[in-house]
Amino acid sequence: MEVRRERYALWITTAIAIAAIIFGIVQYRQAQKFRILGEVARQRAFFNLLSHVENMEGNLAKARASSTPAQRSGFLTATWSHSQAAQENLSVMGMTTVDLSAMQKFVAQVGDYCMVLSQKLARGDTVTPSEWEVLSTCETGVKDLARALAETGANAFKGGGSQAGLLSLRLASPVPSTDDAWFRGFSEIESLVQSVPSPAYDGPFSDRALESKPLANPGPEISPQEAERIALGFMNEKDDFTAVRVDNIDGVVPAFLVTGTRDDGSEVSVAVAKAGGAVLWGVGQKARTNPQLDVDAARQAATAFLDRLGMNRLIETGWRKPETHGDRAVFTYAGTGSVTVDSKPVQVVLFPEMVKVEVALDTGDIIGYDAVAYLTNAVSTELRPPLVSAKQAGEVLNPELVRQGEPRLTVIPLVAGRAVMAWEFRVTHAQDTYLIYINAMTGQEEMVLQMVIDETGSLTM
What we know:
The protein is an alpha+beta fold. It folds into 4 domains: 22-161 and 177-209; 213-281, Nuclear Transport Factor 2, Chain: A (Roll); 288-377, Roll (Nuclear Transport Factor 2, Chain: A), CATH 3.10.450; 390-460, no CATH class. Helices cover 42% and strands 24% of the residues. The chain contains 10 helices and 14 strands. A hairpin with a 2-residue loop joins β11 (419-429) and β12 (432-439). α1 packs antiparallel against α2 (69-91), α3 crosses α5 (179-194) and α4 (129-156) packs antiparallel against α5. The longest helix is centred in the first third of the chain and has 64 residues, at 2-65. It is globular, with a radius of gyration of 26 Å.
């Protein structure tokens, strides 16, 4: 009997050991799979970034070589478009060990400056020789950036290159160790772009505009411990973090960067303002599975998230699926205010007070949040009743346009770095839909945006 019990105990111990080994192998393979998928996403974002920067370089050269204002305006607008796409790919690179803010700022400023010149040409104004000289400096900087990115990519994939083509067959294979090459390359790029003079102009990404965006309503200073508590409460409560660290972010809005690391190595980072403890932004880096939710379900998740934060007065202004990530949806929201028109309260949509929410389409989790614009703009405190009525503003419109719905009162940011109150008219012409903004104080047309609505989002351009 004693021998039988010992034999049973041995069998049970052996079974437990085998189960533990199997569980460990499964966990290892799963973690390895997530690391490889993360590497593939990073490489895809990098090569898209390189492509858009090279296209910026080409369009800048064509703009300077063109002979007509229409051609120049087209190439400058294309440069701005590629700048927007490059910024998007930069934001999903996942380079937690390198600060890419200087590169992001440089790419944004070049695109922004091109849009300023393009609009100047569209108005019939002349671009001065000094402005073309600044554009030439931008072109040189973009050319150097493209070359540096290409060199970084060549060094990162030296000796074997990417394993993207083998992922489906070798999920247990190790990812190439390119972190050192990435770090060295992007550190050199950051130094490079910092040496390029910033274009002197008035725009939302100009040095003057960026430096004049502190928190609109700062509060008392908080401690790192308080920032960690706020960030952990903001993160997904289902997550169990194996490590949490708190770093400092210097800049116009000083903040604590709280980063939580999960068992599989993926991270969640949340920036908490030191003055008052408001969450500036948050981003989760984790491999996603096949999408299970449609856009409406993702929208409900984003709305519920904002309701939980007490932001139920925001209204949706658009959505999109990012170019490099079809497994998520990004929703944009604007703040609202109110003015009195003819003794009645009228809602005002405040586009400068913008919030972005990113939703994973596999689980409905919130994986991205950006409230910097919302927290640094205070246009709601400067609202005045319009001097031009909606009827008077409508008389400015081209009579060939067909109106859709009622006009709404808004505050819009202009490229020149200022904000104005305007009546927004949604109109159609042929098969195209436009948003036209008429200044509610002067009656002048301020902006025309074309709406692009398809399966990838509802965008304006």
